[in-house]
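User: Hi! I'm working on a homework problem where we have to compare a predicted structure to a textbook description. Could you give me the structure for the chain below?
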Amino acid sequence: MHEDKDRNRYENSWLWSIDAVLAGKLNDPLREMNSISRVLASNKSHDAKENAFSDNYINALHLRLFSLEVNANRFADALGTVDRIQKLPDAEATLVRIENTIAYVNDSIASEDHIFIKVDLENTGEYFHSLARNGFTFANINGKVNTVEVRCETHREKFSVAEDFVWRIPLAWGQCQVLIKGDTKTTFDLIEVAKV
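Assistant: Happy to help. Predicted structure tokens:
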């Protein structure tokens, strides 16, 4: 079904919803996160008047995405999901259900502990990560990581990767993502380092 490229947004929503359910059954959280994100991107029609799914289902998908992001230590993504939840119908009731977890995320970001994210470049050889902190490094590289590109609100830089080297991004660059490219099947820890 993924090979058929002639789908409209409504059909895309259903396909990615099915894929998210399958990923959950296969215990593949990264695939489930990606599929849920695709559902949410495809849910509204081009004129934003029609939705493929009900508000209740979209709220449930946001909650599931938030949970997956927190479990994967993707804290900046989790807080972005919270921002989107705040714009949903019945947002207050939804936010009450996760207020303790939101506090945990904020406490983790502010803590003196490093944040470890397990990364597998899988079949694409690429990985995007939104940073919750302005310092990061790599450890336990198994395979080859070629480049890391830091994409921020006001700046963009591309670097070669060196294990145990800490990149410090100036706060003036704003919110940042990193795009990591390497050989497929490469695994490593991306570590958002504690403030020094």
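For your comparison, note the following. The chain has a mean pLDDT of 90. Helices lie at 9-25, 29-42, 55-71, 75-85, 91-110. Good luck with the assignment!
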